[in-house]
Amino acid sequence: MSLADNSAPRRARLSLARALPNPWSLGAALIAAVVIAPILAVLWIALFPSENIWPHLISTTLPRYFGNTLKLMAGVGLLAGAAGSGAAWLVARYEFPGRRWLEWLLLLPLAIPAYVGAYALVDFLEYAGPVQTGLRELFGWKTSRDYWFPEIRSMGAAIIVLSAALYPYVYLLARNAFREQPGSADEVARSLGQGAFARFWRVGLPLARPAIAAGMAIAMMEAVNDFGTVDYFSVQTLTTGIFSVWLQSNNAGGAAQIAGTVLALVIVLVLLEKGSRRRMRFFNLSSRHRPVARTALRGATGIGATLACLIPFGMGFVLPAWVILGHAIDNARAWADPRLWQAGVHTLTVGGIAAVLTVLGGIFLVYGVRLSGRQLPRLLLPISTIGYAAPGAVLGVGILIPLAAVDHVLADTVEAATGIDMGLVLTGSAFALVLSYFVRFFAIAQGAADAAMGRISPNLARAARSLGRTQGQTLREVYYPLMRGSVASALLLVFVDCVKELPATLLLRPFNYETLATRVHDQASLENLGGAAPAAVLVIGVGLAAVGLLARANR
Length: 555
Prior knowledge:
The chain crosses the membrane at residues 21-47, 72-92, 104-122, 155-174, 200-221, 254-272, 296-325, 345-367, 379-404, 424-445, 478-496, 532-551. This protein has helices at residues 3-19, 23-47, 54-59, 62-93, 99-105, 114-125, 130-139, 155-180, 183-191, 196-207, 209-225, 228-232, 238-248, 252-279, 299-330, 338-372, 375-383, 386-389, 392-418, 431-440, 442-454, 458-466, 471-482, 484-500, 503-508, 516-525, 529-553; strands at residues 94-95, 295-296. The protein is mostly helical and 555 residues long.
């Protein structure tokens, strides 16, 4: 047989190999489908409900839910944006007493879930709390009729608590943006006679606008996702409406319709944020620029700057940590409750499994897309991050309803074939919980993997392949050692978010299955803050580890 005869089958095999999708690309597409499926399920159920109560919702509760959600988003966005950008400007541009400590202390509210801050604020300001008790003793008042005190469980209090918990998103992005601004812009403004506030308002703020807008958008999306805070303050939002319509009215279709409204609101917010950045761009025209020299603030001005940074830190971290830790110490017996440690084991198990699977899925997706080299798989990367924008309650609807239907079909099929009633395997276990965490926080793992792989030269992978390494061996022996730090950071961040997640956990947990977050919520809902405190302390401890890692990465 001639050489030409041998080469023809070989060319045919190569052509077939190129035509067939790569297994890594197929796996990446499957992972992306898992992430997107709950969102599509919500839309499908909302459009084709078994019982359409949309006209009833529009005429009764939906306007109130929608209006309160818009007020909450606007209030949190403005207050968190003002606190975060103001603190970032002071820390980045001035020297004042305590600046070096406050630069990192201002990140600590990220360690405390907003719902814990809500419980602490009510405990601190309620009638029997230390503030009102001290006022009565100081002025000789006998009852609440002798004085006026603002309503604690209100929309305003919810905005303050959520802003205090979420302003670090704005602060972190704005601080980096202010740091990177060239000193020449500040010097030109000074030469034109602009004062400190004018330089902030006309130069620093516009240049940092994209970062501040991104931080505000994150804070507003987290405010939409919140359930524990608004539920405790009796503020009816779209998220509380999902719980009310589904669990109290037993109408999954109506819950999906409200969830679809939440999803549409979040998508509009994301598009507005991206559109604002597209219309307004600023460029640094020099590859090397001198940073802005910090101005020393002394006397009353320096003390004022310190106090301005201490206020959000005190509201977001010191107050809730002090109140919760005090209850945890006063209720030492609660630490011996076996249900607390069982909830801790559940949290470690479910959160750990979800974190590992999410990070592995993110690495697989990014690696598979890079191997394919085609345009369609590359579209999967931004689409697969949609889960992070979807609130936990929305994902709960999109996961539980389809999964329950599959579970019943599976159980009926097995029972018909074997006569064994296996029960509900998917929704009767923590599987749905792990899946919701996977979808909700996949963007964190995918972003970390994409950034880490982007820093690695493709020549290293080509060299490994030329030495006979397979694609899997190249990932294990070349990529992983170089991105180990990013993988560890992503694992910790995803795990911490899983520990703090409340709405999806409340909807998807199996019967009598508690995590630390649900235990805090359940005990606080019964006005038993002493019983909730130990679990809250454990949640805060896990959050502090993540904030420490975040601070280290942003030095």
